[in-house]
Amino acid sequence: MTHSPIDAQSTGWSSTSAGMTDAIGGTPLIRLKRASDITGCEIFGKAEFMNPGGSVKDRAALAIITAAERSGALKPGGTIVEGTAGNTGIGLTLVANARGYRSVIVVPETQSREKLDFLRMIGADLRLIPAKPYRDPGNYVHYSKRLAEELGAVWANQFDNIANREGHRATTAPEIWHQMDGRIDAFTCACGTGGTLAGVALGLDDLATKAGRPRPQIVLADPEGSGLYGWVKSDDLSISGSSVTEGIGQSRVPGNLEGIAIDDAERIPDPEALTQVFELLRDEGLSVGGSAGINVAAAIRVARRLGPGHRVATILCDGGARYQSKLFNPEFLRAKDLPVPEWL
To answer: Where is the Tryptophan synthase beta chain-like PALP domain (predicted)?
Structure first.
């Protein structure tokens, strides 16, 4: 008997899994003590770093590959190509390994060494290219599309392929809803592809409507150097500043975000996000990456705005070990004028 991710509770898995892909999802929802205490609210983080590939992107990878199989685009022995900041590539490679496919992963060379080394270790055909903006034909997304066409392969197209958000609608949202007993006032999440935010927003809306309860507020968390905060607030995708976070932020609206009701947005500067990363590790034993820091910082802001007694959920996207050479490197942090935790 295998475990259904939709039935997962905060205690984790309660039965065996038929294979690696069956173990994707069903992650714990962890009460964040410090964030809860300072706001008078209950703030929870979905521990997506506990997926087999170590991040929330395992869900998108499984959903995209499953949709390609069902459509007939991906056949036994086939190849899937994707441009990614790293985590989606890891998820796609592991799911492809489990299902007998080849993976070709295109990554900007600016991404953390740990993610690149891991991709090589697990057998991805890794193609490193210079980091270029989306408007440039050499951008990793455009490059991966051309490469898929040249190879006669399936292009995962995680940014505009709505199988991404539908995977979260079918699994992540029901898990959060059931783990919180349907009592959730707000959900915060940063966006790279937009799949997690959009899928959870759609799923929570479905479940709240079915239960006759108010729809939770959906709040987009955005780093500096991204246009999505301005898009939500004033339909303006203008960009200013920059961020050391990887895999989140956009200069355009991905297909996964189109048509999604987003109530508000919070722009989180790197020092505020890294403070959350370091405090979660020091005070609660949770090792997370920069995007999780942005998510928790946004959840705290939202909780303070809503007032004591409210319940907020967010995503702990991946683990801190993937960013050891950057976020936990005192020389890198000092060079960027960012906070350095005392133990480093």
So the answer is: 21-318
